[in-house]
Glutaminase (Aeromicrobium flavum), 1512 residues
Amino acid sequence: MRSPVPEYLDEVLSACAKDDSEPAAIALTTVDDAHHGAGDVEHRFAIQSMSKAFAYALAIERLGWDAVHEKIDVEPSGEAFNEISLDSQTGRPHNPMINAGAIATAGLIGSFDTFAEFASQLAGRELEMDDEVYASESKEAHRNLALAHLLAHYGIIDDPVEAVDHYLRQCALSVDVRDLATMASVLANGGVHPDSGERLMAERTAIQVLSVMATCGMYDDAGDWLASVGIPAKSGVSGGIIGVLPGQVGIAVFSPGLDDHGTSIMGVEMMRRMSAEMGMHLMNPGRPSRSALADVLEDGDETVYVLSGDLMFSSAESLLARLIAHPPETERVVFDITRVTEVSDVGRRMVAEARDRLEQDGASVEIRDNDGDDRLGQ
Amino acid sequence: MRSPVPEYLDEVLSACAKDDSEPAAIALTTVDDAHHGAGDVEHRFAIQSMSKAFAYALAIERLGWDAVHEKIDVEPSGEAFNEISLDSQTGRPHNPMINAGAIATAGLIGSFDTFAEFASQLAGRELEMDDEVYASESKEAHRNLALAHLLAHYGIIDDPVEAVDHYLRQCALSVDVRDLATMASVLANGGVHPDSGERLMAERTAIQVLSVMATCGMYDDAGDWLASVGIPAKSGVSGGIIGVLPGQVGIAVFSPGLDDHGTSIMGVEMMRRMSAEMGMHLMNPGRPSRSALADVLEDGDETVYVLSGDLMFSSAESLLARLIAHPPETERVVFDITRVTEVSDVGRRMVAEARDRLEQDGASVEIRDNDGDDRLGQ
Amino acid sequence: MRSPVPEYLDEVLSACAKDDSEPAAIALTTVDDAHHGAGDVEHRFAIQSMSKAFAYALAIERLGWDAVHEKIDVEPSGEAFNEISLDSQTGRPHNPMINAGAIATAGLIGSFDTFAEFASQLAGRELEMDDEVYASESKEAHRNLALAHLLAHYGIIDDPVEAVDHYLRQCALSVDVRDLATMASVLANGGVHPDSGERLMAERTAIQVLSVMATCGMYDDAGDWLASVGIPAKSGVSGGIIGVLPGQVGIAVFSPGLDDHGTSIMGVEMMRRMSAEMGMHLMNPGRPSRSALADVLEDGDETVYVLSGDLMFSSAESLLARLIAHPPETERVVFDITRVTEVSDVGRRMVAEARDRLEQDGASVEIRDNDGDDRLGQ
Amino acid sequence: MRSPVPEYLDEVLSACAKDDSEPAAIALTTVDDAHHGAGDVEHRFAIQSMSKAFAYALAIERLGWDAVHEKIDVEPSGEAFNEISLDSQTGRPHNPMINAGAIATAGLIGSFDTFAEFASQLAGRELEMDDEVYASESKEAHRNLALAHLLAHYGIIDDPVEAVDHYLRQCALSVDVRDLATMASVLANGGVHPDSGERLMAERTAIQVLSVMATCGMYDDAGDWLASVGIPAKSGVSGGIIGVLPGQVGIAVFSPGLDDHGTSIMGVEMMRRMSAEMGMHLMNPGRPSRSALADVLEDGDETVYVLSGDLMFSSAESLLARLIAHPPETERVVFDITRVTEVSDVGRRMVAEARDRLEQDGASVEIRDNDGDDRLGQ
């Protein structure tokens, strides 16, 4: 049996394509390390501004959140990617997704090799710089040098010429959509690589990067993007866009034709279509489990509460609500969590609390988990 | 047995309180219609800017998304709530969460009574205007009148004096945190009231409102708020803040001391603490179900794939991946979805596709659902 | 004999005219009360923004410079006339030549009748409001009302609706180019009406108004206007422009076709041409007298220093330089100032000083002035 | 006999001095090449931003007005000297008096030696660069390099690093107040050096530079400066200010204590005091000659019109007005211009015209000028 996903992705490509002579590609990597693609998935292009998300993650990992936040803010600027968007008092770039912030990030990391190594770990293969792209952009770097000198003026970075060089090398890393989807999937998976299981960044770092992608990743179109597509994303002028649905999937699309925002026209359409058809919107109320209480079985002298899905705040709450409204009439009570997928901290705390109180009321409580598991920490 | 939630909320209140003489309160309403609160939950105050989220929803419901979007953009402005933040060409307010956008929204709705009725439906009780607040703010309305006349100049609204009057009445509606939590829970629940089950707005409208709250709800602090708290929210100068975790819960906090953004200082702290302790961040990778494939049972001549949690893209994908890697060796195949909580469109499509292909390969496939259910539409 | 000036003005009109069907006119009034005109000098139109210069003068006369300056700044804004150009902290309009500043000025004056009376004194005839213009602009006053409410918000004015009404009435005063040239000539003449000799404002007020016209009168074109035309000026959207050459002449031109700045296209050309051909540029080094020392006559036992032109700093200096370089060899010294046109304060002080010192050196000094004059205050 | 001017300048210094330990100086150079000074007139300091006025003159002289204007606008920016004040579409600096415009000017001139030579000609002695100032500012040039790279990005200049180096050398030229007063006097004298009589720039260039100094020379304080002081000026962060009264005098003051605008506090006070006491305001209505018609002598068969002062538009007009109002009753008419100081083009044209018309009416007209002069071009 073959997976239907590639065919679906082919459909998306065909529906959005405008010009068959241009390369176009989609790739997905799930947090369970499944990989799918369609179109020119081996076509290589420069990572460009999509690198900003990963460089920001690396800077936080190496310097810590406070040190990075002191130099780079996280507010949407409502401006285009190449605006001189610095705080007028402090010179702090508005966010790491505009060029000023990305050059500051490069300056904080301090070494291109460090970034290249990190990006290669994320992609799962050794990424290389496209010398031609680097050479060409080095010649036209006046705006970036202007930003870098301003940053140096305000004491955000030390060596503006080096920071721009590092940034241009970073942007010239050559990738294909499969690389990008895998890199994005690490963010989706809370910082753990879906393939190797290796943690490449703290979960809090991944959350931080995704949040900034959500508010600042699409430049002056950020609000409309989040409202209509609802997937934290970052575009690059090479025609690529990466998107991340937390806990689910990393996505990458590619097609070179750009709109006024410097964003791939067909790439945007592919993302919109997948978001709509796959129900991927971040604000989709159906995403998390609704209720953990799948069943209540009165079995002679015991009452069994069967929980399923994710045991999070709202689902643990449904158990508590039931216990309060209809206290168990038997002395023995069982919480069956064998069907539960995920247990969050708050879910664990709430069920433990319920157990304590039932026991105070004189009941005996058993937690029934899968063999060998003890997810409520009895 | 009593619920531990109110005690937890009491803890949050105590930990964040600075000044016992000031009123303070928290309330939560889950999508399953559970209500919890702590502190001065009956204390009434003006809804102020928190009304903007609901007025925006009402405008979309009544005029349609296109008509509203033509008049009011959805981009973060990076500015304070009272800035004159209009597009310099068209006069279109940057978003509906700043005053200019909210006055435009009031102008589009066209009647205060219509809004009051909608807000009362959301709260589940008849809300009334605080005459004193309305009278006091009507005297100091010069900035809002300035914005309204500009909007009229650009043809966004017709009658600026009426629109401001409507807006001031809207802001003067008197609520407590329980009202606000319930109103917010309708957004969390995709537009359906958790109590009555009545749909008060389209799911797409709720998604739109939550998206705009995420990028624009906290004014010039929007980026930091989303990164650190990760809950779409809206504050009001009366000291209230509402927050919404899609699919889970509506939250309201209240405490009158304000920061420079006009946002409740203690309210922000309470939201931060709950987000951190309850794992409520929108970018939390653990939120949705990770995998639907709970078990694979080889039972003589049939193979049973037991699915649980939410059947969404990423979870359906885990089933497909298994089928591809290890094709079933029996002729009979069962997909057991009795433990599945939610079935998304894409999940349904993907499992149906898997079934077709297995049948093409010669297998017989059975979908096993709860009695009476047929969630995969066989 | 007839004056050649009207024929010259006719030439200017013909050279600049683009469309004979449109009315066009020029008028000049010198500080010696000579009046010249060409074209449709009796054509009436609304004074519009040209009134701003005179209203500003009236406000200073009535409230004093400090009170006016506290409410209205004098800095060029680099913006178009209808921009919301207020100081972001204080709400103080950038200058009195933009609408915000003019509405603030109207608010400070507090009465339209007071302004109409003042404008009538300047014009030398009773000016009346064009009811149709007033009625039409009252209907479209949203932008001005927006500005006025903002000014009220910042405490710059008290009653925004009244201030805008006053401002619109002021702008609707009906004038022809002869009225405007005469009004402008009062500014040229340091505040004294060239006809009646009546002082209508302090000299310092006239200087203040002309300075603000020079930097702010032509909106976002102020710098280019001063550099290329060099005449403090103010335009109105009715198609008129007034210009003032201090100490010489008030100018008014009219033609209804407007450019993007809302300024008369043909009016600008006429002003440019007259400036170039008549050497009217404010920075023209030839404007003031170069030297007062017309001749030195050694006549037996006395030396006569014949002074002519204006006795100002630079010209008095030329006398002193001569006295120092070549001290008089006779005991009797005469300063003949019968040919001197103007005596400035500094000129008087310097010549008096020279006289004292010569007398200390033993000389006897006589000041020879026209019969009955004693301009050096002996 | 000694001149009283130095004593007056000493008075100004004493009255404005705040701290005797700091150097302070004033110098004046008239268009008649008189030199006066008070205080530490030999104290050397870097010319800094005062060089901008002269560099702008040089650029216009070498490239022509059009080529310079294409690259550098002449509009006040309402911003501080170090703002990034470029047109958002074209990158054209708002004016040549802010750093961006001055760096563009340096780039247009293309060679520091060329500027140093020109500045030395203006000062009348060979000016040298202060190596220490240059070395120190080269280390802190990040903001200027940022501006220069932006200019290069927009194609305003070619080599940003070279342009900044040139600009920093230009700013480090070492001068004293006497040098500056003499340099300023060339602008006052329409481009002709008062000492050598050599023309160093076209009169139109001097007018252009003075106009831009008037609107843009004092940065965000330009409007208030022109209104209160009324002297086109340019300040430098070394503590110097130059001022120019067209046709009269070049002024330089110096004192190192700076205000928030980067302008000498005591320097400003000295300029204000001299302006007020010497009647130097550009808008002073008393500056030019009021009337050329000093006398009308009926002498038997001839009428002699005695003209004096400057023969400009307004003064020639007074002659024409008299001829029209009271036509001469004799056949012979004499225009005695022996006392006339200056004859402008328009004055010449107007008197010539008057003569033609009188002759057409049958009169015989004689122009009586000083021996050997023929200033009306008979």
